Structures are given as C-alpha cells and as structure tokens.
Amino acid sequence: MKDPQGRQVFTLAQANDLVPTLKMRFSRIFAHQARLREVGQELKSLGVDIRAGQWRPSPRDTPHSGRLKADFARFLDETNHELAAIHMLGALVKDLHQGHVDFPALIGGKPAFFCWQYGEDEVLHWHQEQATFVQREPIDPGRNPTKIH
Prior knowledge:
This protein starts with 11 loop residues before the first helix and ends in an 11-residue tail after the last strand. It is elongated, with a radius of gyration of 19 Å. The protein is α+β, with helices and mostly antiparallel strands. The protein contains 3 helices and 5 strands. The chain has 2 domains: 1-18 and 91-149, no CATH class; 21-88. A 5-stranded antiparallel β-sheet has the order 1-2-3-4-5. The longest helix is centred in the first third of the chain and has 27 residues, at 19-45.
C-alpha cells in the first residue's frame, strides 16, 4: 500500500521487522562518521577545507594528503551506501547523527509516521504527518496502532 505521496506504508509489525537491519546499518554509519570526523580534522590541519569540496584529489596533493582524501572519499561513499540501503527499505532517515527514522503509516486513516531512534529495540513512537520527532507520542501497547487518534 502507498500513502498519498507514493511512499510505502508500513504496519507497526513491518517497521519493527526492520529494526535489526537499521541497527546494523546505523552502527556502520556511526563508525564511518567517526572516521570522517577524524580524517576531516587531519585534513583541516593540513589546510584542506573539506566543506569547500577540497577533499577531492588534486595534482597538488602530497602522498599523505592524497591518502587522507582517498580515505575521506571512501568513508563518505560508504555512509551514502548505507543511507541508500535504508532508503530502499522505504524508511526515511530524519536525523543522521541521532539515528532518527520515520516509517510512513496510515494511523486512524490519516498519513502519519511510526518513528524509531537508534538504541531502541523496537518502534515505540508515532507522530502525525506534519509533526516532528520531538512531537512524537508513545504507542500504547494496549491499543491497535492503526487506530491511534
């Protein structure tokens, strides 16, 4: 089933089935991000402005800076690969650094999102379509999550 924007609609069970995969992918993303910060700091100490795209190879590179730039590009590519894999599942990464993920859903017949954060063992919250992560509400285990109002 698709929502009005053409996105896959998840049941709570379907979203929860993806949690182990999301945990694995985010643990990789966080490791890549840590390496990106380390390599980025080292490049910055060499006068390379990574925000201006200077991490790309240049004829002026020393062997050391060339290696660092190659490492930076590799960790960036690996992060993007993990994000693309999550996107292919139909999940929406809302905050890369915190590991916030939304799953399009229909709750009470209206577009909404189940939401999960890295570190949680299951999807525990939801929010209305126009709401944000901080406005999320707990899923009451005693209620049918498709009937939440």
